[in-house]
Amino acid sequence: MTLQNIKYAGLAIVGLIVAIVLYNSQIMISSGNEGVLMKFGSVQSQPLHPGLHVLIPEYETAAIVSVQPETITSAENAATLDLQNIETSVAITYHIDPDDAPFFYENFRNVQSLATKIIKPTVSNDVRAITAHYNAEELITKRDEVDAKIKDLIVKSLLPYRLHVEAINTSNFSFSSSYADAIEAKQVQQQNTLKAQYSLDQEKIDAQKQVVQASANAEAQIAKAKGDAQATILTAQAQSKANELVSSSLTPIIIQQQAIARWNGTLPSYMTSGTNLPFIGTLSNTK
Questions:
Q1: pTM above 0.85, yes or no
Q2: Can you tell me the distance from the alpha carbon of 150 to that of 172, in angstroms, rounded to the nearest whole number?
Q3: Do 155 and 143 share a structural domain?
Q4: Which tens digit of pLDDT belongs to each residue from 94-110?
Q5: Which of 140, 175, 210 is the last residue before a domain boundary?
Q6: Among 56, 123, 155, 255, which is disulfide-ready with 74 (CB 3.0 to 4.6 Å)?
């Protein structure tokens, strides 16, 4: 091998090494991610946005941070105001702002570390803080109110960590089997009490209806009796007036004529001295 060939071979090797170094110094950041630039391991505040970036070998390095939504679920145990143990789970969906990728990487490095150090302890503390102000029964009857307070407190607690919380979902609170049975028995008793109260109210309404109907019937009977009495009085008055008119219009002649009209023509079998035939003496005396 000639000296010139050795020179060409050396240049080729050097070129290959440079190409390898340059290739390894490139980083491609895909959509939905951000790059975190580090110089001698020191995190830089300016993120590397999606695209191809060339780094200075041995001086600059980069890490990739996802800025897409992430969901972390935390199983929780807490106590109520009346010292009943409850269980629930809280699912938090969040994302990291692209400009906050360097902050996230410097403090947490990855999602698992964030969940372990920040999110799960925060959720536990906030759930316990809220449920401690409610009785176990109120966690059921005031479920929406409790959920809203838990969500508000968690969002407020996570603000210092620059997390954009998209949703917080709390599962139903579960109690011990004995307490759940006690709640069910109480609800059944309340339903039976309400049913009995309804029946009693209905009986009262029916009784009131009967009283009103009886009163109406009595008033109707009184009104009818008054009407009948008034009618009787008027009839009697009319009859009396008619009798007066008849009495005033009768004369002895009319009376005699009516008697004759009613006589059947039969003479008495025996007549005493001085006795006239029926109506004859009367008529003679009236002439």
A1: no
A2: 13
A3: yes
A4: 999 999 999 999 999 99
A5: 175
A6: 123
